[in-house]
Design a protein that fits this description.
The protein is built from 4 helices and 5 strands. It has one domain (about 1-200): OB fold (Dihydrolipoamide Acetyltransferase, E2P). Helices cover about 40% and strands about 15% of the residues.
């Protein structure tokens, strides 16, 4: 009953922003919980003999840096969540703010959240690669693609993987003829000279 009364008390703009904020916040919580607890150590004692052999020298040594990745799932969800709740607040008629100004402020705050998440993810990645994590321990493990990995080692994507009992995001490349999309599972077969994981799709 309270929820119905609350919904009816909102103007149309607030209702729209609320419809954006609620699902985005729920998904953001799920993503944070998944990151904290890890996706499971799914390295089922992979056998890298025979067809699993891989020559890391086949990968171009001039691997470009994955850089600041704005359009990631966490970043977009955080942007929508912050924008949604901000719109609910700034479009409140009691504030006497024109709806266009309130919407612009909300959008700006959402973009700021997107930027901050990208900075945080890059900072975490740099800290993890500063020496406290041995990426060689990732070989043979299964990872999930977080940022699409382009085909034939043309550039780097990112994967989420549990290494040394901690969930981390690392740059990854593949020699596969097809790009590996976000959400796909891959196996780490080597580490390139630049420290990026070399992966191949599961089932190869």
């Amino acid at each position: 009953m309270f929820l119905i009364e609350f919904w009816n008390s909102l103007i149309l703009g607030q209702q729209i922003f609320l419809c954006i904020a609620v699902p985005a916040t729920v998904l953001l919580v799920v993503l944070i919980v998944t990151m904290l607890f890890g996706m499971g150590d799914s390295d089922a004692d992979a056998d890298l003999d025979g067809d699993g052999d891989f020559d890391a020298d086949d990968v171009d040594g001039d691997l470009p840096d994955a850089g600041l990745s704005f359009f990631t799932l966490r970043g977009i969800v955080a942007m929508l969540s912050i924008m949604g709740w901000s719109g609910l607040v700034f479009l409140d008629p009691s504030l006497n703010i024109h709806w266009a100004v309130g919407a612009a402020i909300s959008l700006a705050l959402g973009v700021l959240a997107l930027f901050l998440v990208a900075l945080a993810m890059r900072g975490i990645s740099r800290l993890q690669s500063s020496g406290n994590l041995d990426v060689g321990n990732a070989i043979g493990k299964v990872a999930q693609v977080y940022l699409t990995i382009p085909a034939e080692g043309k550039s780097a994507g990112k994967v989420s993987i549990t290494v040394q009992e901690q969930l981390t995001e690392l740059s990854a490349i593949t020699t596969s003829a097809e790009p590996i999309p976000t959400g796909a599972y891959v196996r780490v077969v080597a580490v390139s000279e630049n420290g990026a994981l070399v992966v191949e799709p599961l089932g190869k």
